Amino acid sequence: MRALRTMAFLLAVLLAACSELPTSGPIVEVSVNSQGRGVQIAPEPPAEGMAPARVVEGFLQAMSDPTGGYSVARQYLTAEAAEGWQPDLATVIYDGALSEVDGNQILEGTTQGILDQEGRFTVERLPLTHDFQIVEEDGEWRIGAAPRGILLSRYIFERSYALVKSYFVARQGQSVIADVLHIPTVSLTPERVLRAQFAGPSKRTGLITRSAIPDGVQLGPGGATIDAEGTVLVDLTGLPAELPDQERRELGAQLLWSLASIPRVTGLRVTSDGAPWVIPGQNARRVLELSSQQGYQPLSRASAVDLFGVRETRLGRLSPEQNFIPLNGDGQPLDMAAVSLDGATTAYVSSETGVVRIGPAAGTLSTVDSTVRQARAAQFAAGRLWLLGVDATGVQRLVTLSAQGEVVEVGLQDLPGAVVDFAVDPSGTRVGVIVDVAGARQFGLAMVDETPRFVSFEELRPVTESREALSDAGSLDWTSEIDLALIGRSGAGMSVFIVRSDGSSVTDIGPSHGEEPVQLTALPRPGGDSVAVRHAGGDVLVYSAHRAWQRANAAFDWISYPG
Q: Any idea where the GerMN domain is (predicted)?
């Protein structure tokens, strides 16, 4: 983190931003990337007689393509500038504009984030400026002062870079956890994905994961290729001859789920120095199929889809017609309810006393004293109920409860302030958290270690599509394995946003009018799904992907999607 901030500072005097790029210039339409937001931008070399402004525009577009060591982009530079340019120093994502000042082409704007060499995004908000120092060389205008590193407008970044999930094995349980990477679409190959795998998890992700790739293993002479059926053939060298079956399974799952970031990948076949290498579970053709690896993906266990809620101390669910349908429950009053991701376990919570009735959804519930009082947040994650409240002395406490009634306290001492709301991801290893620090709210991510305890809290300061910092976070929940839904403020009004866990993407899905929402719950799915918000008066609005918000026909005192 310190290194990234230092790099951002060094770049601040040299780099600049460009948002609303002109539609003229060397732009061509190519095929739509299934992970992108529209047409990609294919850079072209400079044309004869280009004006200074067009030269700079072409260079800004060409920096999206690393092919040949950024060979196209280098053609916009003078010979001296091209020789001295170091694009690998940093990649800066920015908003801003290009203008002409006293005959000079100047970019001025604000950074949105920085990518490290592996493609990990860190939010950074810094003022940037850069004078390209246009000069004439061999009768053509060329750039005499290249930036230190790469400059990408947010527009180009979103259309030229692919989202890659580089998975590693959780230290607890049987699942794979994703590091979020951003890689130029033209570089999205099996070998590029494997390079990130060999590099291992980030420092933060490494707190909760480990790599299943044994030390010393690298890509062999056979490389990595994709056949017509979507199977990746990976040749590895340095694989231990006597690797146990469980470790082989984990290696296969980690590699295959990571390679599945390439849209057409469906299977994996591994060789060791060219010889077939067995992975338990592979088919007769020695192919490990992605469909056989769903058990390693926590979201694949999701089966319950209803929005549950409490109305006048009674549990119910919301029908497709947006009506409240009472459920039998156990006949006792409750304030909050939670359902596990697979729908197998239910918990009813009496908020003031902290008494929890927990057990099989269709069986007998056990009554448990959670040891917390004035419970204010409850959810299931990794098979346990997570409950936030205070102890008898008023000190904030977070505990987890098993279906058998075992109570375990989760340490909060590493957080910078009191917890306003939290959301543990389905794997039980990462948590989105809103904390109150001296009256100001911070939104960020923490990891859950084996203790268990929240560790490595990192504040996120994502910027909305309207270029305003997200503030006043109020409630949140995971909507996919790498995205959170969040109530927050952008400008004057409160709204609901989908925020990528690294802060690289923020989407406003509303609603942005009327009474401010006080509670949010989301249905976690691989591609994101439904979000619901409850207002102080009990009104509930439900949003499903690609649909508008719908108002429920009944008021609720508490709402919760499974998981």
A: 190-281
Same domain, 190 and 287: yes
The residues, ordered by sequence, that sit 6+ positions from 132 with a Cβ below 8 Å of its Cβ are: 56, 59, 104, 105, 106, 107, 143, 144, 145
536 burial via Cβ count (<10 Å: 0-12, 13-18, 19+)? exposed
Per DSSP, the three-state class of 472 is strand
Q: Is the pTM of this model over 0.85?
A: yes
- In 3D space, the residue among 204, 209, 223 whose CA is nearest the CA of residue 118 turns out to be 204
What is the enclosing helix (H) or strand (E) of 143? strand 140-143
- Sheet holding 209-210: strands in order across? 176-184, 161-170, 209-210
Q: What length is written for the chain?
A: 563
- Which residues have C-beta within 8 Å of that of residue 194, sequence separation ≥ 6? 219, 224, 234, 255, 258, 259
Peptide bond between residue 511 and the one before it cis (omega within 30 degrees of 0): yes
Would 307 be classed as within a structural domain? yes
Which of residues 118, 135, 160 is at a domain's end?
A: 160
Distance CA 300, CA 526 (A): 8
Q: Are both 211 and 246 inside the same structural domain?
A: yes
**Structure-block tokens of residue 306:** 């209803």
DSSP letters, 282-297, are --TTS-EEGGGGGGGS
* Full pLDDT tens readout for the chain, 563 residues: 434 443 443 344 333 333 332 222 322 222 223 344 445 567 899 999 999 999 999 999 999 999 999 999 999 999 999 999 999 998 999 999 999 998 889 999 999 999 999 999 999 999 999 999 999 999 999 999 999 999 999 999 999 999 999 999 999 888 999 999 999 999 999 999 999 999 999 999 999 999 999 999 999 999 999 999 999 999 999 999 899 999 999 999 999 999 999 999 999 999 999 999 999 999 999 999 999 999 998 888 777 789 999 999 999 999 989 999 998 777 788 999 999 998 899 999 999 999 999 999 888 899 999 999 999 999 999 999 999 999 999 999 999 999 999 999 999 999 999 999 999 999 999 999 999 999 999 999 999 999 999 999 999 988 887 778 889 999 999 999 999 999 998 876 789 999 999 999 999 998 766 678 899 999 998 877 799 999 999 999 999 866 789 999 999 999 999 98
In 3D space, the residue among 505, 527, 510, 519 whose CA is nearest the CA of residue 555 turns out to be 519
Query: Where are the extended beta strands (E) located within 144-257?
Result: 150-153, 161-170, 176-184, 209-210, 218-226, 231-237
Residue-range definition of the domain harbouring residue 126: 52-160
CB atoms closer than 10 angstroms to residue 497 = 23
H-helix or E-strand spanning residue 438: none
Nearest-5° Cα angle at 282, 279 to 285 = 115
198 phi and psi angles, rounded to 5 deg: -65, -30
